[in-house]
């Protein structure tokens, strides 16, 4: 039995940002299916108006004649939805962005009458309501407090003091996080950080609430529009946006905000997971936050929620802004509830402008290592057996959530449309007698600091909203590593590598998952083959980028690896010269005995939880090396990646 939603509503769950579908009532007012008014973009100065603008797909520029035809009808203004960028006109036209308009109506005009009126214009081929977006049920952030049980110091490669509580990066199985915590149930990033920690030329667009760009753990990694002079009220760079220094507020068409009474710090929390400044001696670390040397990826704040207000036009414009201003990844922890839409075509009917803007974003190449852009979204938190939209759209990556037990979180959506899983936290399996203690099973990150918010500026949230930025951060790290190696991929190739760089979950999905906090139980078999391709693994992604095969080995056990997969079926008869293990690999895997080769197999016994590379050398053509006075074979070698975990999938963990 899945968890009761009424119970979920009582928990401090970082719930999916949701959009409300509207319908037109007989009186002309736009209402939601429940009968409550759907607030849409107000058409005049009245703050109490229930009417809104419409997004209209038109074949031609609105002109004076068109407005004259509509004079007296209640239509006040017709204007372009998207801001055009010089030099991008051809691309904008390719995706039809030049044909979307915003129609503003008088308050007195019944909406159904407006639709009939506009539909009579021959050049209008599509009408879409400017749906109001809202946050889910009230979301709470639990403030960070010092841990009662600190993990081993070698768990934290950076000097960020709160990183010990970020199990989602390095899970040691610490029972003070959860009695059910599983060592290795994380994103396997620790050893990957030895290869790359970020790239300041890579920009991730955080499409969410506003990001607190002054946060001491975020400020150094915020994207800066160098062509804009802050707070002078002018569009200095001529891109159509005033004072867009760190991004833009598409709700208010003004400055980025995070201090509204209904703002929950969601955008700042998500941003911190992607790229809080790592190794700066304060707070937390980010997945792609750098090494404290100004080398983290950059965060662009594309604000689509302000004080629990938004409309669909803000979302569509944010995507285009991100594309036009250098972002190569869209990080979107929001969407409609699971089951609100049942197919891509159904979603497209009500969200055509958004889909056009997403396609435009994916067509832009804003990073040297990749052609195109990546769009990554949360799957949703309704325990629904399919992903919510827009994550479920075919070309978007949709992310499910795991707890520190390396099992599906109680709240996560799963099933069709879900592509991959990542840590999102699960408070229901936390340890302790109070909220501050059991919160450690959630995800720790940055939140707005100050007298009106969390004083410390750090807190715990949970949800697929928190799982999503882990995948965005890993994707950013992977791209940075590709660039470091001088490699280049298409966005589709990167997506393929991300979704196949995973650890198996299905072999663990048997029995029930329980919690001491609620009576409901999860039947884990319901999630079998429904959590995407598995749990994201940073090291595996790096090895795919390098082109090195990866094998999972189980810590605490001596095991043999068949070398025929690397040296051919005759490997049992080869003369092997030895196994080379570098210092980093030795320190990470902590072999009990030196790796050795017998009977065509590599025998290892790791005691550590980690990742590394080894090189196996052999002779091709005889038992001795040739050269000089000898006739013999040549030396050949193969590099193999090993990932040591406390668990091992039934297929041996082959990539």
Please, could you describe this protein's structure?
The chain has 655 residues and is an alpha/beta fold. It contains 14 helices and 31 strands. Helix 5 runs parallel beside helix 10. The N terminus and C terminus are likely disordered.
Topology:
Blueprint: H1 5-8, E1 18-19, E2 23-24, E3 30-31, E4 54-58, H2 64-69, E5 75-80, H3 89-94, E6 100-105, H4 111-119, E7 124-129, E8 133-134, E9 142-143, E10 203-209, E11 247-249, H5 266-275, E12 298-305, H6 312-324, E13 329-332, H7 344-350, H8 352-363, E14 370-371, E15 374-378, E16 397-402, E17 420-423, H9 435-438, E18 443-446, E19 458-461, H10 464-484, E20 489-490, H11 491-500, E21 502-503, E22 512-513, E23 522-523, E24 535-536, H12 538-546, E25 550-554, E26 559-562, H13 564-567, E27 575-581, H14 583-589, E28 596-598, E29 601-604, E30 610-620, E31 634-645
Parallel strand pairs: 10-12, 10-13, 11-12, 13-15, 14-20, 15-16, 16-17, 25-31
Antiparallel strand pairs: 1-8, 2-3, 4-6, 4-7, 5-6, 9-19, 18-19, 21-24, 22-23, 26-29, 27-30, 28-29, 30-31
Helix pairs in contact: 5-10, 6-8, 10-12
| Helical segment count | 14
Order of neighbouring strands in the sheet with most strands: 11-12-10-13-15-16-17
Number of strands: 31
Report the span from N to C terminus: 33 Å
Q: Tell me the β content.
A: 15-25%
Rough shape? globular
Q: Regions with pLDDT < 50 over 5+ consecutive residues?
A: 1-52, 651-655
Helix and strand composition category: alpha/beta
Q: If you average the pLDDT, what whole number results?
A: 84
Rg for CA atoms: 26 Å
The largest β sheet comes out as:
7 strands, parallel
What's the helical proportion of residues?
10-25%
């Amino acid at each position: 039995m899945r968890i009761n939603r009424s119970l979920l509503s009582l928990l401090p769950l970082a719930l999916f940002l949701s959009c409300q579908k509207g319908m037109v009532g007989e009186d002309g007012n736009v209402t939601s299916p429940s009968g409550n008014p759907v607030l849409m973009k107000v058409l005049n100065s009245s703050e109490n108006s229930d009417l809104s603008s419409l997004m209209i797909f038109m074949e031609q520029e609105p002109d004076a004649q068109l407005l004259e035809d509509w004079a007296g009808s209640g239509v006040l203004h017709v204007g372009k939805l998207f801001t055009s960028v010089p030099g991008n006109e051809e691309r904008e036209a390719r995706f039809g962005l030049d044909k979307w308009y915003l129609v503003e109506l008088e308050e007195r005009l019944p909406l159904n009458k407006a639709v009939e009126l506009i539909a009579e214009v021959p050049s209008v081929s599509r009408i879409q309501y400017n749906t109001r977006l809202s946050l889910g049920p009230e979301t709470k952030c639990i403030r960070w407090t010092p841990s009662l049980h600190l993990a081993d110091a070698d768990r934290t490669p950076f000097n960020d003091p709160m990183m010990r509580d970020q199990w989602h990066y390095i899970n040691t199985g610490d029972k003070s996080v959860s009695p059910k915590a599983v060592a290795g149930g994380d994103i396997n990033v620790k050893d990957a950080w030895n290869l790359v920690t970020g790239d300041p030329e890579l920009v991730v667009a955080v499409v969410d609430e506003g990001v607190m760009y002054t946060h001491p753990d975020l400020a150094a990694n915020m994207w800066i529009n160098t062509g804009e002079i802050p707070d002078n009220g002018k569009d200095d760079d001529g891109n159509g946006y005033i004072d867009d220094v760190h991004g833009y507020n598409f709700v208010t068409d003004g400055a980025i905000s995070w201090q509204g009474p209904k703002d929950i710090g969601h955008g700042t929390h998500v941003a911190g997971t992607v790229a809080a400044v790592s190794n700066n001696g304060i707070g937390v670390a980010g997945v792609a936050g750098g090494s404290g040397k100004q080398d983290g990826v950059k965060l662009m704040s594309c604000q689509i929620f302000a004080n629990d207000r938004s409309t669909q036009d803000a979302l569509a414009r944010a995507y285009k802004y991100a594309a036009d201003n250098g972002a190569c990844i869209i990080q979107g922890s929001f969407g409609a509830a699971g089951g609100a839409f049942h197919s891509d075509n159904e979603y497209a009917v009500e969200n055509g402008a958004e889909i056009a803007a997403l396609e435009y974003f994916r067509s832009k190449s804003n990073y040297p290592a990749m052609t195109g852009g990546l769009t990554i979204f949360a799957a949703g938190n309704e325990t629904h057996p399919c992903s919510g939209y827009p994550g479920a759209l075919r070309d978007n990556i949709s992310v499910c959530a795991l707890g520190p037990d390396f099992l599906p979180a109680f709240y996560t959506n799963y099933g069709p449309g879900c592509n991959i899983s990542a840590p999102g936290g699960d408070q229901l399996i936390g340890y302790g007698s109070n909220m501050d203690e059991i919160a450690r099973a959630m995800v720790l990150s940055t939140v707005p600091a100050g007298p009106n918010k969390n004083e410390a500026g750090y807190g715990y949230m949970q949800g697929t909203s928190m799982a999503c930025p882990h995948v965005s951060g890993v994707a950013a790290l992977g791209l940075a590593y590709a660039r470091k190696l001088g490699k280049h991929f298409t966005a589709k190739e990167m997506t393929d590598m991300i979704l196949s760089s995973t650890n198996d979950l299905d072999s663990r999905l048997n029995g029930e998952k329980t919690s001491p906090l609620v009576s409901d139980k999860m039947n884990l078999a319901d999630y079998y083959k429904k959590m995407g391709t598995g749990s994201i693994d940073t090291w595996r992604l790096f090895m795919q980028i390098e082109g090195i095969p990866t094998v999972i080995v189980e810590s605490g056990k001596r095991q043999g690896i068949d070398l025929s997969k690397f040296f051919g079926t005759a490997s049992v008869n080869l003369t092997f010269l030895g196994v080379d293990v570098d210092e980093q690999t030795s320190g990470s895997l902590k072999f009990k005995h030196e790796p050795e080769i017998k009977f065509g197999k590599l025998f290892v016994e790791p005691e550590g939880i980690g990742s590394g590379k080894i090189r196996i050398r052999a002779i091709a053509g005889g038992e001795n090396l040739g050269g000089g006075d000898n006739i013999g074979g040549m030396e050949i070698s193969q590099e193999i990646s090993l990932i040591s975990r406390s668990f091992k999938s039934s297929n041996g963990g082959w990539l």
